[in-house]
Amino acid sequence: MFGVYDNFPDIIHGFAHFECNSSPSELGSAIIRALYKMNRRGRFLSSHKISTPLGCRIRLEFGVADGTDFNYIDEDVLNLSSDILSRVDLDTLDFLCVVRYYRIEKRRRKPLRFDYYLLRFTLSSGGGEVRVFHERGIRRLPIEDLILILVDSVNRELSRARGRGRHPHVKLTRLRAL
Known about the structure:
This protein is an alpha+beta fold. It is built from 3 helices and 8 strands.
């Protein structure tokens, strides 16, 4: 089934609860658009809000679940997801997140070991939850920072879609890494 990973683990390494003033379908669309834009940009993250590992540049890539597989979120997958979300209300959306790390040495990027996360967004009227499972890697980027990056990107996307100011639409009520 689109958006759901059949083998999502029961054990999690972090979670966040949030309130949201958008409908679950609007929020689901904003999540996928935000992740698509992060994929498409292909830029490195730089933010004062996150603790970047010493001397590393970070890039995030996302895939959306489809049964036992994940599809990289490109324009085709974005269009497919928009079509599905316009017809069906999905209360669960699962994603694969690859956090790519690079160290700059002599003006060249040197790739370091990547982190792989599984993300599960559970959406409901008035809020929801995101669960994070660390699949593999050495976890250079704290899970809390990963969640903050996602919330910030989704809020920017909701602001663009609704034409409102920069006030948050998704407000974290609880954030914890285990």
